[in-house]
Fold:
Amino acid sequence: MAITREDFPLPDVNDPVTAPFFAGAARGELLIPRCASCGEYVWYPAEACSCGGTPEWTRVSGRATLFSWAVVQRAFLPAFADKVPFVTALVALDEDGSVRIPTYIVDADPASLVADQPVEVEFRPLSFSTVPGKSVVVPMFKVVAA
Amino acid sequence: MGQIGADTLLGVDWGYASALDDVCGQVAIAGVGETAYTKASGRTAREIGAEAAERAIADAGLQPSDIDGITWSGTFADFDDAAFHEHFGTSHDIWTSPWGGGMAWAATAPYLAARAINERRARHVLNVFPVAWATQRGSMTGGPGEVHAAQSAKQNLEVPFGWFPQPVYFATIMRRHMLEFGTTEEQFGAVAVACRRHANLNPDAVMHGRPMEIADYVAAPYLAEPLRLLDSCLISDGGAAYVTTSVERARDLKQPPAIVRGVGEGYSNTGTHWAQQRAFTSSPQVFSAPGAFAMAGITPTDVDVLTVYDPFTIVSLMQIEDMGFCEKGEAGRFVEGDTLFHDSGKLPFNTHGGLLSHAYVLGIAHVVECVKQLRGIAAAQVPSCEVAVYGGYTGHMASTLVLSRDS
Structure:
């Protein structure tokens, strides 16, 4: 089951499951599906909420906390060879701490990161040297200045 | 989802256990077979599977024509009934299931065999699992990372952000375990050191002859901090197989039977989306182990040797505490010193070397090691070994197999 999409590992912005996430990012908005019936966030995106209701992509504040992270030293895919070392993280939304978003932590010394510290979204273009000429605006996060 | 008879789902917050029929004392593992465990061998998984099958059948004192049931892992169907017939030149009816093989299913395959044997569909059931990922690595096909990348949420929401593959997932789980419970890097290292110590007593282990002490572990480079290369399993070629039959029949065959006393199976509701797993620093052993131990009529203190599926040291620590060998969050302190050592330890652990230092054959060799320990023929033999447990793990699920000596 090899990946055949040419712009991998950029996200597929046309994949209907996640397209609104990236459309929102392009507009500077962090959108997460939220059930119209019960109000719970549905993450990762799914066709229906566990209560049976329909999720709608909803803007959230962009504020979160740093749940966990790794400082990646080795490129596991060729596309990441010129990015290492980098910080990949899970950030937990202020609106609902069980919603965790995989993301990059930017503009921080990895040694200075502290668990559960406040972070906030920063939309930046993501590109890979292995996919020349293409980039996708995605949510990244930075530490909130004290 | 494994079709193992999940008639009742015992609902718990972030996952659940399957309710299994009581098969305590009904079947036994009567024969085991292993191939050489190596780095790239140039062999195919099918060839490796055939060799493992031959050896298990011979070990049981049976003939290929006696094998009337075969189980394997459906996603790795390298040695199925067609391959069996082609290799052995047989043509008899064989009951089959793709819900066996390795990983978590190396623990539950004997349960499938028990059901088939009870229903008179088969008499001698062969479970086989070969892997040739070390040879395949060069062609960039197969391997654990690829299976995961194909899913939509992973492709668009994880991979682009570098949250991929398994070493990175488990690096973040490792860090959260350190943050929540105070687990230290040296404590993760203690698991790696114990596995390497056992591998150095085991001539069949890939890392035999390559000692490692805690200073070596601490000095090793990070793959994704805080996870080091030495926290991670090997990539290997090799395979193993075992034959399950009724206890009565096993007593007539060549080897001392390894009696199946308990089997358990548990699932995470968020599957392989670890990022969203509510109990981020736990494994589905919390759901699987209790049922297996209850079926076997044992508690953790009765266990003489524990093998767990150990792709990373954090997965070992989580399973040890989730199976109840210590309190939740205490596994780091628990594994310090000689706790895990085969000869002096309170809980002899992965006595063949585990995935970390024996071979990456995804758990099938762990079950074989349990059987060898119960027979008294293991390389790093635990004194007076009566009860052996294998904890299987495949990300979205965990499983538990309790074996004992014939009393």
